[in-house]
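Most newcomers find our protein records easier to grasp once they have seen one. To make this concrete, we reproduce a full record directly below:

…
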Amino acid sequence: MHTSQCGWSDQRIEVLIGDLLRVGVVLAAVVSLIGGVVYLAHAGNTRPEYKVFHGEPADLRDVRGVVSNAFSGNGSGIIQLGLLLLIATPVARVAFSGFAFAIQRDRRYVVVTVAVMAVLAFSLSGGHL
């Protein structure tokens, strides 16, 4: 078991990462559930038209628009915010791991974590930075 001078043992880091993942997933689920309730309260009586595909509105296709819609009480925006939180959870796990490896002064894993973060950033940016 690796322990640094700061008391960041491998076991403590594993517990913190587990808690981070658990909180992220539960928070995403709660936000999505609230969004679903709000959405159904406002649009629950409308009949969907399946003959024509209607994608998400343009303002729900980027982070700024999703956050704006969510805080204005739009049910679809709140659901999308929950999905963004769900996507952000493993990204936060990688970032926290990098931080923990840096505190433990484990350079090899810091380099690996930075590489993983670069791949995540590249893929989440749509393949171009």
Observations:
- Residues 10-43 form the longest helix (34 residues).
- Helices lie at 10-43, 63-71, 75-103, 107-124.
- The radius of gyration is 19 Å.
